[in-house]
Amino acid sequence: MTDGPSxxxxxxxxxxxxxxxxHGTDGPKRFPVDIxxxxxxxxxxxxxxxxxxxxxPANIRKFEGALIPGDSREKWAILxxxxxxxxxxxxxxxxxELGHYILHRHQQDQFECHAEDMLHLSxxxxxxxxxxxxxxxxxxxxxxxxxxxxxxQNTVDLDVLGAxxxxxxxxxxxxxxxxxxxxxxxxxxxxxxxxxxDWAWSSDAAFKAGAFFRTxxxxxxxxSGSLAANEEVAHDREGTEVAAHRWFKNAPKDLxxxxxxxxxxxxxxVMTLLILPRHAPRLWDREENVE
Length: 291
Known about the structure:
Helix content is 32%, strand content 21%. The chain is an alpha+beta fold. It has a 5-stranded antiparallel β-sheet. A 4-stranded mixed β-sheet has the order 1-3-2-4, covered by helices on one side.
């Protein structure tokens, strides 16, 4: 996304600089970002006449979060679903709605965001939900700091990304998607349920190599012989070498990839992270392997 006026990344970086100056880039209170306090200060920072006065849980069963105006639109409230248990989901939801306040409140009367709007898998610059996600990602996980936490490690795995998630107070999914947004490694995240993919997301390098899955266009079964399909292994955070053709049928028989896995037994969901050889030439046909 181009950083023009009021772009999501530009506004998040602006607030990041303020937080860095206030707390110090490595101060004990720098992370996780206190969205409630920041939201209440935003009107002063931006010199706005319509402040956010409340950031509160609410009985909004149909929505993950909401940004709603008060009387005469002179004040705003950020609401998040009071059934949410994960602090990471709550924090990302709050930051997402703060993004709507800063970027979009003059374009729409109110915002009611579903669970699928959080971590919205869209690259459309005009999509307000994708913009709010970009804002939240940059604000909660500043890129320069994130790179220090992840890229300085010898090997990226779910332990490294999990440590980053803990530092920023976000979900592991949010931390992985942040890494995928900039890494030059060929990596793919797949979320599955009951043996079939719910959705998948590839790094740019993986996508250009043809390593992606078209989960929006077809039903894709988790391949047999993969770690994800192995019910005897609930978790593998460091990764196991698996034949690449298990996931990408056009891959050479002698090529392997590193597969990591976390199972959420309560929801019957499996998170899979695939990391392919960094310097291998393009090996897969885009029409065969699908996102």
